[in-house]
Amino acid sequence: MYSNVQCILYCWGKALASLKYERVGVIARLGGESVEDSVEAVARVLDAAGVEAIYEAPAAATLSDDALRIAGREALGDQCDLIVVVGGDGSLLGVGRDLSHKNIPVLGVNRGGLGFLAGVAPEDIEEDLADVLHGECVEEAHFLLEAVISRNGQEVARSPALNDVVVHSAGRSHMLEVRVWIDDQWVYDQRGDGLIIASPTGSTAYSLSAGGPIMHPALDAIAIVPMFPHTLTSRPLVVQGGSRIRVTVENADAIDAQVNCDSQVNFDLGTGAELHVEKYPEPMTLLYPKRHSFYESCRSKLDWATRLGDR
User: Fold this and answer.
1) What is the pTM of this model?
2) Largest CB tally within 10 Å, which of 145, 263, 273, 305?
């Protein structure tokens, strides 16, 4: 990681080019010294570049500066032209659901686990963030899904999801019987632990653990992945991104059936309700360092580079 002086000199060198992003919002999850160190590094780069920085309260709490400008998440979406998120992919999922409708690009600094979405490593904050501020980066548009639950023709719940929408049995082991339609065409009845409906972004998350396909983020497609189906002939299904998916739970005793979005937002489903899933209107624009490659991320994070016999 660069020292303060090195950071200032690097940003001064970049200052010869015009800034693309001049008002930056900073969001961070509370998570100990590692998160605090990264927020401080982000703050140094923004200050050295002469960028107006606005902090969500948890991010501001990691800095000992009473003069910081603080705003809520919705206000950050209205006032900023770039959002920097310090945390893991879970933090980015929440920002995607909350702010994708604002059409603001988001840059993730990884302080979590695998970090498929958060593309900046802590040791690269100074160089990568300075590049991004000047537009030297890779932009990826990630579409979200939208889950709507209706009962007797009336909407009872709604939420976007960046990764996936999951139908499952809450609280206890209980086999579900689900019926699936795509564009009002009946597809199948399925018995198992549940069903995962994943975007390309979510194909490397829960869907992958259930045997779903890995999809490039640029694909306009949705994966439907059964969870531990009660038949060996059931396989993941990939459909067009514009498809309208409808799911019902058919067994009358499945009163504990639930729907969750990104494993962070939960709704009761139960017998008699319908789940409707389709593409959310506004995508989330994620920024990555200019050297970013989806396939390199797969090699490093999924251990594709390991050869037989290597240790």
Assistant:
1) 0.90
2) 145
Taking residues 184-196, what's their average pLDDT? 95
Count CB-CB contacts under 10 A for residue 307: 6
Of 97, 109, 85, 290, the closest CA to residue 199 belongs to 97
Least confident of 55-64, 121-130, 169-178: 169-178
Query: Is 89 considered catalytic here?
Result: yes
9-to-48, 51, 258 alpha-carbon distances in Å: 9, 15, 53
Residue 308 banded pLDDT, cuts 50, 70, 90:
low
Residue where the block lists tokens 């580079």: 305
What homologous superfamily is domain 4-143+283-301 in, according to CATH? Answer: Probable inorganic polyphosphate/atp-NAD kinase; domain 1 (3.40.50.10330)
Which one from 65, 78, 89, 124 is the annotated catalytic residue?
89
Cα separation of 243 and 204, whole Å?
Answer: 21
Instruction: Provide mean pLDDT across the span 293-302.
Output: 90
